[in-house]
Amino acid sequence: MKNPLRFIQEVKQEAFKVTWPTKKDTVQGGLMVFGLASIAAIFFLILDQILRFLLNLVLTISF
After folding, report:
1. Residue 2 has what pLDDT?
2. Which residues span the domain enclosing 24?
3. Please, which of 25, 35, 52, 63 could form a disulfide with 21 given CB 3.0 to 4.6 Å?
4. By the 8 A CB rule, do 35 and 43 touch?
């Protein structure tokens, strides 16, 4: 990096090449994240309830 001014100009040129997502893409991505997080939460809730039931069953068995 010999010339700081040239470096700044190149950075500015590269910054103009950045394409930002559209509003539609952002909303769609947000909805996908929310939907998948909800599915994961429901899955782990069900799994937790099943494991809790099985653990209670094992702990209440009298030998």
Report:
1. 78
2. 20-63
3. 25
4. no
**pTM, 2 dp:** 0.66
Tens digits of residue pLDDT in 52-62: 999 999 999 86
- Sign of CA pseudo-dihedral 4, 10, 12, 18: negative
Q: Which two tokens stand for residue 24?
A: 């539609």
Distance separating alpha carbons of residues 38 and 31, to the nearest angstrom: 10
Q: Which amino acid is at 16?
A: F
Alpha carbons 46 and 63: distance in angstroms, whole number: 29
Whole-number Cα distances in Å, 34 to 31, 37, 59? 5, 5, 37
Give a yes or no: residue 56 inside a domain: yes
